[in-house]
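### Sample
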Amino acid sequence: MSALSDFPITARWPAQHPDRIQLYSFPTPNGVKVSIALEELGLPYEAHKVTLSDADVKSDAFLSLNPNNKIPAIIDPDGPDGAPLALFESGAILIYLAEKAGALIGNTPAERYEVLQWLMFQMGGVGPMLGQLGYFYAFKGSEIEDARPRERYIGEARRLLAVVEKQLSGRDWMTGEFTIADIAIGPWLTAIEKTYKAGDVTGIRDLPNVQAYLARFAARPAVQAGCSVPPRD
């Protein structure tokens, strides 16, 4: 096993437990996906707070791990064949962790692909569209006179929520069993009300399956623990 000191990021964010997975993150919807997964899977890890400021995510230290300057990222000192593995992109990390632990990714090849399908639904649709909803509705919308971007992302949020509402009919979780797809989707749907204060315009409160789903998600101990990792303060 190579020393973590081989990775430049560890000079800025030193490891106190170099035998554990090193998580570099911040508690955003994307960031908590990985901390929730680590908690759910019971994989030992050490969390390092990397804020969204340029001083952190655009630092040479962080860029050495993720050239795309986005959280989260990890280093697993015990990766494939015992060699360390550095990985960024939350979806890729979720797949890796689930496969490492042999859980939360379906029990058959067909189930695995169904899980990946809904994970990609989050990565390609829910995350980008709700992120733009946050920007244009909650954060910067008041500075933009043109209402079309705001209306577009409100409309996309409503459309995506309708897809989730239909998929959850008769199911507790997106594919029946709790998987990394739910770990990816849950934090983003939670952000609609909690972070973006967009419950009224998106109609999320009128979707009984989604509301029950979010209540189940929030009640999981690993979700509760992972949503505050690393602490903001």
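The chain has two domains: 4-104, 109-220. This sample (Glutathione S-transferase) is used throughout the tutorial notebook.
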